[in-house]
Amino acid sequence: MEHMSKSFKNLTSRPDFNDRYNDLRKQVLNHPDVQAFLTSHSHEIDSGMIDRSMVKLFEYVNQSKNCEQCPSLSQCKNLLQGYHPRLAIVGKMIDLQYDICPTKKTHDEMKKHQSLIKSMYIPKDILEAQFHNIDLDVNEPSRLKVISLAQDFVESYNNGERPKGFYLYGSFGIGKTYILGAIANELATHSVSSMLVYVPEFMRELKGSFQDSSLDNKLEAVKKIPVLMLDDLGAESVSSWMRDEILGTILQYRMLENLPTFFSSNFNLKELQHHLSTSQRGEEEPVKAARIMERIKHLTIPLELVGKNRRG
Ligand code: ADP
Ligand code: MG
């Protein structure tokens, strides 16, 4: 680009102007895209028009089309980064119109996809989990079942239903969080936004912070996100405040608003109930625990995942 337009500018001030101009003109007119354009518009174009439009044609020839000369978006050589030119007739001129290029299109789609998956304290590899690269094993029928139900979930959600989430439980390292990540990605492909929250860290942060507006905003976001995934419930330390005010409020809201909610836990429902019954201070509050359990059961179908530990 630089090279050609500079040559064009320098040209007019040189004595051999005519020769050089004709050379460049020939190069431009021999360009296969330009030739194709001139042929397909031959009835609208005359040589006067071509000469009047020569600067535009230079500009066209020297830019990358379909990303063929740009290694990446940030190294895009075009005048408008992320856009490539197309020839068009505008009035009595041949002009350029700029369209978004394939690389930028992919890049924008990826950004949009990422922006649909919110997360708090979730490792990056989990956020990249996909159904199609989940490693399946015929000896793990529960994983096959969970994944098949997860696909059904996404499909029903897309059809406008608001199906129940899962209470996904099983031992450490077998891929519960990974499956939640894959569901979040699948939802994002369908433009549904979701949020994955690692519960122990979320609760720790809530406990450590003052009741400020950023905290309120976080809580609001968790309450209202279209699809919520509460990861590793049961691994947090229980306080009445966290259980009743935080978890209770979030679940109550989601139940009333019919917002799908998933959980993962090392505990089955009975063990979770036990865990939630005893606060850190040793108070036994079975009724309050039962109230939370009611909400979880209302929101989810319980699914046990059995399989090998996939951690290193
Ligand atoms: P859990 O939540 O049950 O403790 P994770 O989902 O964190 O387990 O999985 C443990 C590790 O194994 C993670 O690093 C994850 O990326 C990997 N992993 C889990 N399930 C799969 C799978 N089906 N295919 C490939 N890698 C997996
Ligand atoms: Mg996990």
Automatic annotation (TrEMBL):
<dbReference type="InterPro" id="IPR013317">
    <property type="entry name" value="DnaA_dom"/>
</dbReference>
<dbReference type="InterPro" id="IPR009928">
    <property type="entry name" value="DnaI_N"/>
</dbReference>
<dbReference type="GO" id="GO:0006260">
    <property type="term" value="P:DNA replication"/>
</dbReference>
<dbReference type="InterPro" id="IPR027417">
    <property type="entry name" value="P-loop_NTPase"/>
</dbReference>
<dbReference type="GO" id="GO:0005524">
    <property type="term" value="F:ATP binding"/>
</dbReference>
<dbReference type="Pfam" id="PF00308">
    <property type="entry name" value="Bac_DnaA"/>
</dbReference>
<feature type="domain" description="Primosomal DnaI N-terminal">
    <location>
        <begin position="1"/>
        <end position="98"/>
    </location>
</feature>
<feature type="domain" description="Chromosomal replication initiator protein DnaA ATPAse">
    <location>
        <begin position="161"/>
        <end position="241"/>
    </location>
</feature>
<protein>
    <submittedName>
        <fullName>Primosomal protein DnaI</fullName>
    </submittedName>
</protein>
<dbReference type="Pfam" id="PF07319">
    <property type="entry name" value="DnaI_N"/>
</dbReference>
